[in-house]
Amino acid sequence: QKEVEQNSGPLSVPEGAIASLNCTYSDRGSQSFFWYRQYSGKSPELIMSIYSNGDKEDGRFTAQLNKASQYVSLLIRDSQPSDSATYLCAVNLPSGNTGKLIFGQGTTLQVKP
Amino acid sequence: GAVVSQHPSRVICKSGTSVKIECRSLDFQATTMFWYRQFPKQSLMLMATSNEGSKATYEQGVEKDKFLINHASLTLSTLTVTSAHPEDSSFYICSAGTGRGQPQHFGDGTRLSIL
């Protein structure tokens, strides 16, 4: 079992719809969860951090965390073509102090005009 | 805030050349810096983790004599690809973090092409 799992997609949604991206993780000791966006040919960009169970909203983005079920999700409301990218879920490695993150393989989102 | 600068953005050179890539945290002190490699259409692959003033920790399968990492200060880490060959051609990305549980902030990456 992979430590952080995402459906690779592509996930295709029409412009204006809600895109729902999901991620599961295996280590119950993980406490910090991040979503990164990576455009083709570019480096990852941090878009959301979440540390507590529940929802966290930032503009059109909502991150949801359920530690009991070991999943974290990202909702993108009013999806735009410019949201088309690969979204990476990252989870902290509980042991050590380095801040090492385990990344999922990413979900490719396509928003069609 | 949390800006990471990476240079150069692109390198094209002949086989056998050594290439140095710099990674700087511009507005914060990074406890740890990380070096990743990414091939087209593939996931990020962590190569090594480095802390200021100590030896880097390499991931399994990454040759430490091939990929030299120096972390001279809390704001600067360098990766040197020694005697690069075409199979080393890839997208190299650094990131910087401030410790356990904190996010990593990525540089813009370096596209390395070895002819």
Question: Notable features of this structure?
Answer:
heterodimer, A: 113 residues, mainly beta, six-stranded mixed beta sheet, five-stranded antiparallel beta sheet, 0% helix, B: 115 residues, seven-stranded mixed beta sheet, four-stranded antiparallel beta sheet, 11 strands
Task: Explain how this protein is built.
The complex is a heterodimer of chains A (113) and B (115). Chain A has 113 residues and is an all-beta fold. Chain A has strands at 4-5, 11-14, 19-25, 33-38, 45-50, 54-58, 61-66, 71-76, 85-92, 101-103, 107-112. In chain A, the strands form 2 sheets. In chain A, strands 2, 4, 5, 9, 10 and 11 form a 6-stranded mixed β-sheet that branches. A 5-stranded antiparallel β-sheet of chain A has the order 1-3-8-7-6, with no helix packed on it. The mean pLDDT of chain A is 95. The model of chain B has no long low-confidence stretch (mean pLDDT 94). Chain B has 115 residues and is an all-beta fold. The termini of chain B are far apart. Chain B contains no helices and 11 strands. In chain B, the strands form 2 sheets. In chain B, strands 2, 4, 5, 6, 9, 10 and 11 form a 7-stranded mixed β-sheet that branches. Classes of the chains: A mainly beta (113), B mainly beta (115).
Concise summary:
Chain A has 113 residues and is an all-beta fold. Chain A has strands at 4-5, 11-14, 19-25, 33-38, 45-50, 54-58, 61-66, 71-76, 85-92, 101-103, 107-112.
> Spans of chain A with pLDDT under 50 lasting ≥5 residues?
none
Number of strand segments of chain A: 11
Largest sheet of chain B: 7 strands, mixed
* Content of β-strand of chain A: over 45%
Q: Structural class given helices, strands, pairing of chain B?
A: mainly beta
- Content of β-strand of chain B: over 45%
Gap from first CA to last CA of chain B: 37 Å
Output mean pLDDT of chain A: 95
Shape of chain B: globular
Instruction: Give the overall shape of chain A, derived from the CA principal axes.
Output: globular
